[in-house]
Write a structure and sequence with these properties.
It is a single chain. By secondary structure, the chain is mainly alpha-helical. It is built from 2 helices and 2 strands. It has one domain. The chain has a two-stranded antiparallel ribbon. The radius of gyration is 20 Å and the shape is rod-shaped.
Length: 92
C-alpha cells in the first residue's frame, strides 16, 4: 500500500506540473476566443484555456489526496505490524 500510494502521488505530481508547464509555455497571457481559450487556468500564471482543461488540472490536484491517504495508511499499518512483533531482531 505504501509503495502504491507513493508512486501514485509522484505520478500525479509529475503529470500536474507537466501540464502546468505545457500550458504556461504554449498559451498566451490573455483570452483567445477564436480558439476557445476563455477560462483562466489555475496555477498557470494568467494563461487561458478551455473549461475542460481547467477541470483536468483541478481533477489532478484532487487525485493527489487519495494516493497520499493510501501511502499514509500503508505506513501506519507497517508501524503497527512492527510494534506487534517484538520477537524480530530489529534495533530501534
Amino acid at each position: 500500500m505504501q509503495t502504491f500510494g507513493v508512486i501514485g502521488c509522484l505520478a500525479v505530481f509529475v503529470w500536474s506540473f507537466g501540464l502546468i508547464g505545457h500550458y504556461t509555455t504554449t498559451r498566451p497571457y490573455g483570452p483567445v476566443p477564436q480558439r476557445g481559450w476563455t477560462v483562466c487556468l489555475p496555477w498557470c500564471f494568467g494563461c487561458y484555456g478551455t473549461f475542460e482543461e481547467k477541470q483536468q488540472l483541478l481533477l489532478l490536484h484532487y487525485w493527489f489526496l487519495p494516493f497520499f491517504f493510501v501511502a499514509f495508511v500503508g505506513t501506519w499499518v507497517r508501524q503497527l505490524r512492527e510494534k506487534k512483533e517484538p520477537w524480530t531482531n530489529r534495533t530501534h
